[in-house]
Amino acid sequence: MPTIRRLPEHLVNRIAAGEVVERPASALKELVENAIDAGSTEITVRIASGGLDMIEVTDDGCGMRPDEIALALERHATSKLPDEAIELVATLGFRGEALPSIGSVARLTIESRPHDAAEGWRRVVDHGVVAQDGPAALPPGTRIRVEDLFGKVPARRKFLRSPRSEYAVCLDVVRRLAMARPDVGFTMEHDGRRVISVQPREELAARVARLVARELAEDGVVIEAERGTARLTGVAGLPTYNRGVADHQYLFVNGRPVRDKLLVGAVRGAYSDMLARDRHAVLALFLDIPPDEVDVNVHPAKTEVRFRDPAFIRGFLVGALRHALEGAGQKSAQPPQSAAMNMWQVEPVTPSPAPSLGSLFAREYSAPRSDYQPSRVSETGAAWRSYEAEVMAQPAARAEAAVEASEEALRYPLGVARGQVAGTYIVAEAEDGLVIVDQHAAHERLVLEKLKAAGAEEAMNRSQALLLPEVVELEEVACDALEDKLPELARHGLVLERFGPAAMLVRAVPSVLSKSDVGALVQDVADDLARNGDALLLGEKLDLVLATMACHGSVRAGRVLSVAEMNALLREMERTPRSGQCNHGRPTWVKLAHQDIEKLFGRK
With 0-12 CB in 10 A as exposed, 13-18 as middle and 19+ as buried, what is 40? Predict the structure, then answer.
């Protein structure tokens, strides 16, 4: 019979390291969080081989005394919980497990000096054994070096990925923490090459644009919203500025980087009728709420949180994002890409004569014959007049008489219509450049917004009762999740009832989805709840129907519009929110600035 025994300290630390230190990026995250909690204003990170060989974090924080360094290497010893109110913790770290866990699976060197101390102190722990302890020379602050991670745990080492892959994860960790604290300067070097350098005391929007994508400065909107005790700030990319994967969505709760499916679902819901399902928004959102409204102690790595009122948080995020995007009006991520600019055809520097002019000079020069007599001027003029009709002929095209636009008209954001290309694209002149509008995509968005304003969305949510209620068998967990969302699903027209422990009774479905497979619909909604924490799929299906109605009711590509109709479409776009993108997240217009046109002609 096996006996119960108390595990030795070194084995306990190695077990804890399996939870806290999954890979080099996990150790790096813990060290940078400690540096932030120490009140640092400058943090320098150096890694080698993706963190597999070396990780070093240097800060100018408060520093530690020799006895504090020794205590910090013991399990569950921390300075971040002055009392037992763990639900009110405001620091990034609080468990007191990181340093002893790292020291048990690597060679850990800690050097630290308080600001009021004359000298610093060094302590080296090699895979759980103290190897060195003595004075050290260093400026005020702390420097921690991790070497040979999992060197004596080959079973863990062999499961790590390549240095390049581990470096990518380390870079993402530092990028997220640097975004969370724009008041702190960050420098990161990988194998001697500087990859991040941001100065302290930056504006939040500027810090986000520097770390995520510089285009966000032009193609994003600033978020500033408050509701009750909750506050949301950040930068959200326009729907037309999107990515194929969701790795450019940075979410923070009380300054802590998190990956929470409730927040991800709220973002998806906010962009639901502006992006295709396979496209994802680019954004960085910072949610600040009272500490007692969120539980951060639900995961060893502290990347997941649990909210006391998740419905309020989701509604707040969706409302704030939609309000900010509507405020952008017809704004679009519209500057032409460099690849598109390079496709413009440039005329050769020494063009050949036009065919009509070439006929005048086609004869080769030959010496005058002996019987040559000069022609009279009148004869030469007659010869020119025979070519004049061909050379001076007007271009063969149909054009509508242009109307002189006033200076006030040119100041419209989308300018004044000047023509139509291929029956599909409107060409307009604005005060600062040339605007090209996709008439079908633009009108499709306008019709969709009008349908919503006219109550079509509410009409689609109306239920159609089933003649015979249908029983759908599901797992008990899925039934529990659906039961918690019954009122919300009913607002979308899906009326369900619990029918035993592992089944749901469907009494009504949205009228526009009445011909769909009821069982498959309920199963898809349950799967969506499990994946995103919210029933987003049902709303997306209804949005798709509404978008299809808008598509069929809009101006088709190939229809010839008059100048008056084109100008009316431009003015309507300027008045309609979110008109800068179609229902699939593509831009409805692009602008060719004056300087871009001048570059095409070699003027700049």
Answer: buried
Residue 455, Cβ neighbours under 10 Å: how many?
A: 9
Taking the CA atoms of 538, 542, 545 and 547 in sequence, report the sign of the dihedral they define: negative
Q: What are phi and psi of 89, to 5 degrees?
A: -60, 135
Contact between 251 and 303 under an 8 Å Cβ cutoff? The reply is no
Q: Tell me which DSSP letter residue 561 carries.
A: -
Structure token pair of residue 532? 């995103």
CB 491 within 8 A of CB 479: no
pTM of the model: 0.70
The whole-angstrom separation of Cα 512 and Cα 221 is: 34
Q: 3-class secondary structure for 306-359?
A: EECCHHHHHHHHHHHHHHHHHHCCCCCCCCCCHHHHHCCCCCCCCCCCCHHHHC
Report the distance separating Cα 402 and Cα 435, nearest Å: 17
Q: How confident is the model at residue 557 (pLDDT cuts 50, 70, 90)?
A: low
Quote the pLDDT of residue 396.
42
Q: Band the pLDDT of 321: cuts 50, 70, 90.
A: very high
Residue 82 to residue 455: CA distance in whole angstroms: 55
Strand, coil or helix: 449: helix
> How many degrees, rounded to 5, is the angle at CA 459 between CA 457 and CA 464?
125
**CA–CA distances in Å: residue 289 to residues 232, 315, 362, 572:** 9, 14, 82, 39
Both tokens of 49, joined, read 């081989």
State the virtual CA torsion across 300, 303, 309, 310 in degrees, nearest 10: -130
Helices (H), 146-260: 154-157, 163-180, 204-211, 216-219
- Nearest Cα neighbor of 211 from 191, 230, 184 is 184
DSSP states of 445-513 as a string? HHHHHHHHHTTHHHHHT-EEEEEEEEEEE--HHHHHHHHHTHHHHHHTT-EEEE-STTEEEEEEEEGGG
Q: List pLDDT tens digits, range 198-245.
A: 999 999 999 999 999 888 888 889 999 999 999 999 999 888 888 888
CA nearest to 27, candidates 54, 63, 8: 54
For 588, other C-beta atoms within 10 Å of its C-beta total: 25
Contact (Cβ atoms closer than 8 angstroms) between residue 80 and residue 93: yes
